[in-house]
Design a protein that fits this description.
single chain, 235 residues, alpha/beta, Rossmann fold, 37% helix, globular
Length: 235
């Protein structure tokens, strides 16, 4: 137990015992354990969050290694949620981790009881999943933060935290603004970038897979984690 106390001593020195206790008692669900979501989970585990729910159906691929914190040659082929769970156990063995090897879609949403969560992180890719997550969190009165587009960008300094209705430039945020307004959602905290997307330099005729780097999704994930931590301890 002395080792565990030592693990978070620097965080405790900054935020105090009461805040550390809030984090230890908090349960956060992270939907999407990719370039953004993996860094969110890592930072939450290293901050002493006591319970984490990880939701993703993908397995680690070689093409993930350039940007995803769980992606190593030793983890290729593993389910992302399991690779992340093993990593958390090596960071904070006391953290209680639940894994869900599925994508969050309208057909799977009944597997999740949002009333158990103190915070929800949306780091999924599809608009349908994002909208379902936001509506469910809103209905259960659970705080949620959403990641907007991080692909095809090079400047991590362009990220901002804002309400969805105050965003600009980001095409995904534009779609979300329109669809959330239709659903009567009044506000949503998001992390988004004002950087104009770069056109991928794929060979002519290749599928236009979004480009990404080690330093853009990771920064988005760390910003999201910082917002979660601050909200949980009310800084």
């Amino acid at each position: 137990m002395s080792n565990m106390k030592e693990t978070f001593v620097r965080t405790k020195n900054l935020i105090g015992d009461a805040a550390m206790e809030k984090l230890a008692n908090a349960r956060v669900a992270v939907f999407g354990i990719g370039g953004v979501g993996g860094h969110v989970v890592e930072a939450l585990a290293r901050s002493g969050v006591g319970a984490l729910d990880l939701i993703d159906k993908d397995t680690v691929s070689v093409s993930n290694i350039n940007r995803q914190i769980i992606a190593l040659y030793s983890t290729v082929g593993k389910y992302k949620v399991e690779a992340m769970k093993e990593r958390i156990a090596d960071i904070n063995p006391d953290c209680r981790v639940e894994t869900y090897n599925c994508f969050y879609i309208p057909e799977t949403k009944d597997q999740f009881d949002f009333s158990k969560y103190d915070y929800v992180v949306d780091a999924v890719d599809t608009v349908t999943a994002k909208l379902t997550l936001v509506c469910e969190a809103n209905e259960k009165n659970v705080p949620i933060i959403s990641s907007m587009g991080a692909g095809n960008k090079l400047n991590p300094a362009m990220f901002e935290v804002a309400d969805i209705y105050k965003t600009s430039v980001c095409p995904l945020a534009k779609v979300m603004r329109r669809e959330l307004k239709k659903r009567g959602i009044k506000s949503l905290k998001v992390v988004y970038s004002k950087e104009e997307a770069i056109t991928p330099s794929n060979v002519e005729g290749e599928e236009r897979v979004p480009g990404s780097t080690a330093f853009v999704p990771s920064v988005a994930g760390l910003i999201i984690a910082s917002e979660v931590i601050k909200d949980l301890i009310k800084i």
